[in-house]
Design a protein that fits this description.
By secondary structure, the chain is of the alpha+beta class. It is built from nine helices and eleven strands. Strand 9 and strand 10 form a beta hairpin. The longest helix is centred in the first third of the chain and has 37 residues.
């Protein structure tokens, strides 16, 4: 392990021990706000500090085992201990590097999933429906909750647009790299000549906004319209103006919600989506301003990015960002998205590790 990384870990360990002492100080305990902040810091430092303590202990064992190899009677046992310590060192060093990676607090919570039909007319809408079913099945496998926010159905099936809230443990961490362009190549059901058509959809995954990070939205910044719901809903549809459309005037962001029969519930849902979109836009702007010159293999997540191609005639899915091709399209469309998500996450972590190495050289 590089000396720069060891120095960084040693500094974190010193801070961990300092915080541990402060938490036992009566004056800190009486100051609730400071005690809470230090408790959170202690929790964040615990895993990496304990892992580093274990790593340093193994380094001592390695030195001892190497010295013992000079003793003829102890040589065989020392060689075995040295070999085991080397393997454990490699494992611990990998764990330490992973623990040093920057944490995204959004990873722990839920998200809003937005799927929109792009080029390709009704076939794009059909594909948007297929994508949303794929994500819904993945959520079901993960035991996440899917709550519809807004739906605009296609004339021949599928969706022109569908927005849903997905709640559960670490939802955003698994779905955040799905943002971008998704392309499909297949023969539409109405194609009499058997020609393959190419259509596209865009996917946006926006982290749910925590209360502490809610943007400051004043009533004067909003234009709120009501209208009658459309689509499935029985006799209630088109009888009351329960659907809500909110326009955030400073940014021009527009949000609709018509899934609930109650206007108040639709407004609450729409406001939660609006807050998430405003925060996501602010985050994207800040990241663009702070962007390094390093090439990000996973792109920006913009809708113009071409993430993936789903080729139905060949049963093939190609993840363009990491140059991965899998011939198990049916399995993926049935919700087994981990076949794609896990390699992407691993690529992201490798990218972060490379950035970390550059940073602490």
């Amino acid at each position: 392990m590089k000396p720069t990384i060891i120095a960084k870990l040693a500094a974190l360990l010193d801070r961990y021990e300092e915080v541990q002492l402060l938490l036992g100080d009566a004056r800190v305990i009486d100051d609730k706000d400071r005690f809470l902040l230090l408790s959170r810091e202690y929790a964040q430092l615990t895993d990496i500090s304990r892992c580093f303590i274990k790593w340093r202990k193994i380094q001592q064992d390695l030195v001892t085992a190497e010295i013992m190899q000079n003793d003829i009677e102890m040589r065989e046992m020392a060689q075995q201990e040295f070999k085991e310590a080397k393997v454990l060192t490699k494992t611990l060093e990998q764990q330490l590097k992973m623990l040093l990676l920057p944490k995204d607090l959004d990873d722990l919570g839920g998200c809003f999933l937005e799927v929109r039909a792009g080029t390709g007319g009704y076939e794009a809408a059909m594909f948007a429906g297929d994508l949303f079913r794929m994500y819904s099945r993945y959520a079901e496998i993960r035991r996440w909750n899917v709550e519809l926010i807004n739906v605009h159905e296609g004339e021949h099936g599928g969706y022109k647009e569908v927005v849903a809230k997905i709640s559960g443990d670490r939802v955003y961490s698994q779905l955040k790299f799905e943002s971008g362009g998704h392309r499909v190549q297949r023969v539409p059901t109405t194609e009499s000549q058997g020609r393959i058509h190419t259509s596209s959809c865009t996917v946006a995954v926006i982290p749910e906004t925590r209360i502490a990070e809610m943007p400051n939205i004043t009533h004067n910044d909003l234009k709120i319209d009501t209208f009658r719901s459309s689509g499935a809903g029985g006799q209630h549809v088109n009888t009351t103006d329960s659907a809500i459309r909110i326009t955030h005037l400073p940014t021009g962001i527009v949000v609709e919600c018509q899934d609930e029969r109650s206007q108040h519930k639709n407004k609450a849902k729409a406001m939660s989506v609006l807050s998430a979109r405003i925060r996501a836009a602010e985050t994207a702007k800040r990241q663009q301003e702070e962007a390094s010159t390093r090439r990000n293999l996973l792109g920006s997540g913009d809708r113009s990015d071409r993430n993936r191609t789903y080729n139905f005639p060949q049963g093939r899915v190609t993840e363009h960002r990491i140059h991965l091709t899998l011939y198990c399209l049916d399995e993926i469309m049935a919700g087994n998205l981990d076949l794609l998500i896990q390699p992407i996450v691993q690529e992201h972590q490798a990218d972060q590790l490379a950035a970390l190495s550059d940073e602490i050289k």
